[in-house]
Structures are given as structure tokens and as C-alpha cells.
Design goal:
single chain, mainly alpha, Non-ribosomal Peptide Synthetase Peptidyl Carrier Protein, Chain A
């Protein structure tokens, strides 16, 4: 029983569970947004979606176009709504805090140590 408890309390498992739940909720939001955008695009074209469009009698072309547009919108939402802000936050946080502006370089520090050691009498 202790091994099972350790498995459940492992940090990776808890993080994965949280990510899965948040991912499911986020997928619902993105799907709803995608549906709104597809409907807006289809309204311009005069149809609620592309499913009924069948050029040359090919009935599967319309649903494919609907899925393709939905994928492109979903990818754009994820990229511009999640990836770019995450990269921006990471680059902002990744700046080294221990380097103060105007801090001496390694060569300057070594030269200073050399000069101090030269001044000492052994």
C-alpha cells in the first residue's frame, strides 16, 4: 500500500493530472471559439459551414474543408494565445538576475587578483 501511495503522490503524476484537466477545459474553450470563427467565415460565404459544399459531386470535400479551417484556427489560437505569451514570459524570467549591470568581467577580476597577489610578500 505504501508503494501505491508513493506512486500517487509523485510530483509528475499530480502535474500530469492537473495538465490533463486544464487541457480538457482549454480544449472546450478553443473549440467554442473556433466554431464562432468558422460560423463568421461561413456567413461571409453564405453557408453556416462548408459541410454541404460538394464540388463535382464529391460529398467529402465540404467536411474536409470545415475540419481544415477549424484546425488552422485552433492552431492559430494555441500559438498566439498560449505559445507566444509563454515564450515571452520565459524570456522575461530567464534573464540572469545575478549579473548586475556594469559588473566586472572575468578577465578584470583575474587581473585584480593577480595585482593583489603581486603586492603580497611571500
Amino acid at each position: 500500500m505504501k508503494g501505491f501511495k508513493d506512486f500517487l503522490m509523485r510530483g509528475n503524476l499530480v502535474d500530469l493530472a492537473v495538465a490533463f484537466i486544464i487541457g480538457g477545459a482549454f480544449a472546450t474553450v478553443v473549440t467554442a471559439f473556433t466554431k464562432i470563427v468558422i460560423e463568421a467565415i461561413a456567413k461571409i460565404g453564405g453557408a453556416p459551414n462548408f459541410d454541404a459544399w460538394a464540388p463535382l459531386g464529391l460529398t467529402s470535400v465540404g467536411p474536409f474543408l470545415t475540419a481544415l479551417v477549424a484546425f488552422a484556427i485552433l492552431a492559430a489560437v494555441v500559438y498566439f494565445g498560449v505559445v507566444k505569451p509563454y515564450e515571452l514570459a520565459q524570456s522575461t524570467l530567464a534573464k540572469p538576475a545575478d549579473e548586475a549591470p556594469g559588473a566586472p568581467t572575468t578577465e578584470e577580476l583575474l587581473a585584480e587578483i593577480r595585482d593583489v597577489l603581486k603586492g603580497q610578500k611571500v
